[in-house]
Every structure is written in structure tokens, then in C-alpha cells.
Write a structure and sequence with these properties.
Helix content is 0%, strand content 69%. By secondary structure, the protein is mainly β. The chain has a 5-stranded mixed barrel with strand order 1-2-5-6-7. The mean pLDDT is 95.
Length: 86
Amino acid sequence: MNTFQLEIVTPEAGIFAGDVQSVSVPGTQGGFQVLVNHAPIIATLGKGKMKVVKASGEEVSFSMEDGVIEVLNNKAIVLVEKLLVG
């Protein structure tokens, strides 16, 4: 299965950690999607929706405000100021 590790963290707590098929984020220069074997990147994120497709195929959406994503070696870490499920 084509999955990679994703970790979502806020200043208060870790929100999610696990294997996912994809994550779509609202980049400050435009939204983009991360898939397995994505090139290394560090990007700033703005206000908007983050969509996660878990390894099982289940989709989860979060409303988020300002953050950063780092992708390296099939691991993505998303640091966000504020996150709401839904």
C-alpha cells in the first residue's frame, strides 16, 4: 500500500499520528496535496481546510489556521496554531 507517516501537532497537543494515503493542505501560495514519495518540502500554511485520507481510506477534514508543513523521507509533520475537526 502506498502510505506515508503523518503527524499533526498544535501548541496544546498532538492531534494525529499515523499512516495516510494523502494530505491536502492550504498553502499560503495555494493549496497542494502530499502523496507517498513526495519531494522534500517546507511550506507555510494559511487558513483553510486540511483533508487527510487515512491508510484505511477514511477521510478526515480539519479547519485550520496558520501553520507549517515539513515533508521528508515519507514523513510529513504539520504544525498548526489552531485546529478544529470538521
